[in-house]
Write a structure and sequence with these properties.
This protein is of the alpha+beta class. Among the domains are: about 20-150, Uridine Diphospho-n-acetylenolpyruvylglucosamine Reductase, domain 2; about 150-270, Uridine Diphospho-n-acetylenolpyruvylglucosamine Reductase, domain 3 (2-Layer Sandwich); about 270-385, 2-Layer Sandwich (Alpha-Beta Plaits). The chain contains 19 helices and 18 strands. Strand 17 (about 435-440) and strand 18 form a beta hairpin. The longest helix has 21 residues, at about 465-485. It starts with 17 loop residues before the first helix and ends in a 13-residue tail after the last helix. The relative contact order is 0.13. The structure holds flavin-adenine dinucleotide.
Length: about 525
């Protein structure tokens, strides 16, 4: 069963070792376990539904059950966690619907129009920017859980296209495709729960984006039900027929309507898939190597560079941190002594092609003074890549909050943006007399620049309100640093509630008006996920 107030399945955990806890205590101070509220406490605070059972449309499963409403009230952002664990959740939706077909989605939108009910499309509930928060106000809120619309509707092998209902989750989608020897190759770290519709609506990016592409390029077309009618986006291989409607659907964050089907571009399952590791001394050499790898275009599937603080933290928190002694001795012998930076690089394809790509990558890495250490660390990362988020639960239980933020900048701004964000985070906690542990990696690279992914750990406050105020200061400081550095406010997580204040700086007033008018065309009464993306 999925945890009601944290990440992942009950019974699955990733404990923090005593040495890892000591490592954190040294950096941010020793912590005290929080007093979280129980599920019963939370349920006792859920207000009665504002939707009367007899008003509900027939033929669609809709629940007014308190627990189901609570389970659909949040995503996975830190404010969501604080609200759930501290018992400060402002509102839960009035009802949760589970449509099974396009017609049922249509019936729900007709009901919403008739009753002026607000609608929140819900995929896997893994949003980290407040996409799923029920807005305040008199109007009732209906959350539409797409989880029952999870079937593969067709696979056109010759065209390499597959069509799914939009509520399909990552593992189910891959299992369906791989049964036919195909893959989408889209692996966000939230893969276990997140859905195809959610990926498209938030423009998600998977770990192997360098090889398979972001969801932006994998999404070929689909079907959207909006309050004003249906929108079909055909799956042309390419088109010059005016602006691309796919781009309106991508990143629409549930504001245009509900995606019911998506057609995606798939690839044959590769013969070989491998992730190797290398180390650099110093961030400068590492960044230059990564830029070189990204621009040379040797066909890697992933390039992930942990900067020095993240490399040190990864090695310290690893279950095998003792075994890293030998690695360190080897690296020192090879001249990688200070500010070690860990590079993971992956390749997929025919076995011979993969070997050739790895040889070329190693040559570039060595040209920048990097030392290749083979596949062991890469394999460890690969095997545990969906387990790491479970650490959030164990850290919280110890009294630490862990959160992440991300942007993308051109190469010339990369190092200065990392420094600006990390400094802003450190400054933000100073007025609380608190310390923060910050570390960064580059997870998605392009010929022109890179994404920057920052993780930070700080102590929970004495009350949920205190923790929230700390987080708000951190988020504001880091977001302002991102904007000032010329970065996008989101490379992959979307806008939701947490980034919308910064959107105008990026799109301009006219740009925002264009987006607003498109939303109004599809949804004139502003029923769809109001407040997300734009005020
Ligand atoms: C531990 C963790 C790791 C993560 N790793 C990554 C990562 O590697 N890469 C990445 O890009 N993101 C990542 N995320 C963020 C998140 O998983 C993505 O934004 C994901 O795409 C959300 O998908 P979802 O199905 O859970 O959508 P939800 O969270 O349910 O919804 C997100 C938004 O999409 C809308 N939406 C959902 N389904 C539909 C639909 N069918 N029609 C219309 N609108 C819809 C919702 O209304 C909402 O606005 C991570 C999150 C967590 C918690």
């Amino acid at each position: 069963m999925r945890r009601f107030n944290g990440w992942g399945e009950e019974g699955v955990s990733l404990p923090v070792s005593a040495s890892a806890a000591a490592y954190l205590a040294e950096r941010v101070g020793s912590s005290r376990a929080p007093q979280d509220v129980t599920l019963a406490d939370l349920l006792a605070r859920v207000s009665p539904s504002g939707i009367a059972e007899h008003d509900l449309p027939s033929g669609v499963r809709i629940s007014l059950d308190q627990k189901e409403r609570l389970q659909h009230a949040t995503g996975q952002s830190l404010p969501d966690w604080i609200a759930l664990r501290g018992g400060t959740l402002a509102r839960v939706p009035d009802a949760v619907a589970y449509p099974e077909s396009r017609d049922e989605v249509r019936a729900l939108l007709t009901f919403a129009q008739k009753t002026r009910t607000r609608v929140i499309p819900y995929g896997g509930g893994t949003s980290v920017v407040g996409h799923l928060t029920a807005p305040a106000g008199e109007q009732a809120v209906l959350t539409v859980d797409m989880g029952h619309m999870n079937r593969m509707l067709g696979l056109q092998k010759e065209e390499r296209l597959a069509t799914f209902q939009a509520g399909v989750r990552g593992p189910h989608l891959e299992a369906e495709l791989q049964a036919h020897e195909y893959t989408l190759g889209h692996y966000p770290q939230s893969f276990e729960y997140s859905t195809l519709g959610g990926w498209v609506a938030t423009r998600s990016v998977g770990q192997f984006s360098l090889g398979y592409g972001r969801i932006d390029s994998l999404f070929a077309g689909g079907h959207l039900e909006t309050p004003e009618g249906s929108l079909d986006v055909p799956s042309f291989p390419a088109s010059a027929a005016g602006p691309d409607l796919r781009q309106w659907v991508l990143g629409s964050e549930g504001r245009l309507g509900i995606l019911t089907e998506c057609t995606v571009r798939v690839s044959p399952v590769p013969e070989r898939e491998t992730v190797h590791a290398a180390f650099f001394e110093g961030e400068r050499a590492a960044l230059e190597a990564v830029r070189d790898l990204a621009q040379t275009g040797i066909g890697l599937t992933m390039i992930r560079l942990s900067l020095a603080a993240e490399t040190a933290t990864t090695l310290a928190l690893s279950e095998h941190h003792r075994a890293f002694g030998w690695l360190n001795r080897f690296l020192r012998l090879r001249g990688v002594k200070r500010d070690q930076c860990l590079l993971l690089y992956g390749a997929v394809g025919r076995a011979l092609d993969v070997s050739n790509r790895l040889v070329k990558a190693r040559r570039i890495i060595a040209g920048h003074g990097g030392v290749s250490v083979g596949p062991h660390i890469g394999r460890e990362w690969y095997d545990k890549r969906f387990r790491t988020p479970y650490l959030r639960n164990s850290l919280w239980d110890l009294g630490y909050a862990i959160d992440t933020l991300e942007t993308a900048v051109t190469w010339n701004r990369c190092a200065s943006t990392v420094a600006a964000i990390e400094d802003a985070l450190k400054d933000a906690l100073q007025s609380f007399g608190e310390r923060i542990h910050v570390f960064t990696h580059l997870s998605h690279v392009y010929p022109y620049g890179s994404s920057i992914y920052v993780t930070y750990v700080f102590r929970l406050g004495a009350t949920p309100e205190d923790t929230l105020v700390r987080w708000q200061a951190l988020k504001q400081g880091a977001s302002e640093a991102i904007v000032k550095s010329g970065g996008t406010i989101s490379h992959q997580h979307g806008v939701g509630l947490d980034h919308r204040a910064y959107l105008q700086g990026e799109k301009g007033l006219l740009g925002l008006d264009l987006i607003r008018s498109a939303l109004r065309t599809a949804d004139p009464e502003e029923l769809m996920n109001p407040g997300k993306l734009l005020e």
